[in-house]
Amino acid sequence: MSQAEQVRTLVSVHDVMPETLPQVERILALLESEGVSAVTLLVVPGRAWSREAIEVLKGFESRGYELAGHGWLHRVERYGGLRHRVHAHLISRNVAEHLALDANGIVALMHRTHGWFRQHGLKPPTLYVPPAWAMGRVARNALAILPYLQYEIFSGILSGQTGRLHPIPMLGYEADSAWRAPVIRLWNQLNRRRSRSSGWLRIGIHPHDLDLRLADDLRSDLKRFRLHADYSAIDDQPGSQRYRLLKSSKSPREADSTISNTRSNPRCPP
């Protein structure tokens, strides 16, 4: 068995909005053709969701896909200071809405997102992923009282209950400019190597990735990494994985960690 075949992979599709549903369906068709059934869809609740579009989300659930919260609007009207402007220029464009808010605003946004699912007859999400993986200025103890079990940030998966971080390498493909393609390709090369020692990997897919410069890289990675898992497979019980508590009580930060390489059963197709 190759090293890639031993890596458990978390696959997510980002920016699920009414206007991106055709692209999301296309991505899901590709994933299905590659035998990827454990897929998490990151839903942006604050967009103009019609009754028909909500029914599409319910259809995703009935097909076995997990829905997660992903911000509220997935855009910002103003920047939250110089650091946010730099982050937007290099990474997030105008989507990292947490960075424009204070702690109270971030908590309120995440509560509103969670409530939206229940209001529309959808399963309340257990995972929350801030846009651009940027959580912003919110304390860990505030995350612990929110109704989510897990948070995905840039460096890995954060437990809402224990505040522990599981650092997991991430691959991305949103190369929508000439300079981003070589940078992201190098980033992905490094993280493929990291996954060999960690035993885990994240593949994050954005709606237009199949039409961008790294589309072939995405297809190759789906063929390379064949063992898939749900986010719930990241067990936070003592002894299941070895890790240290986050170093900062103010915001999620990466800590040294060793994650076990035990296999999990990927979800069977619905």
TrEMBL record:
SUPFAM superfamilies linked to this entry: Glycoside hydrolase/deacetylase (SSF88713)
Region listing for Disordered, in residue ranges: 246-270
GO process annotations (BP): carbohydrate metabolic process
Protein name (record): DUF2334 domain-containing protein
Ranges annotated as spanning the membrane: none
Domain of life, per lineage: Bacteria
Compositionally biased spans, kind Polar residues: 257-270
Lineage of source species: Bacteria, Pseudomonadati, Pseudomonadota, Gammaproteobacteria, Chromatiales
Species per Swiss-Prot/TrEMBL record: Thiorhodococcus minor
Pfam family, any one: DUF2334
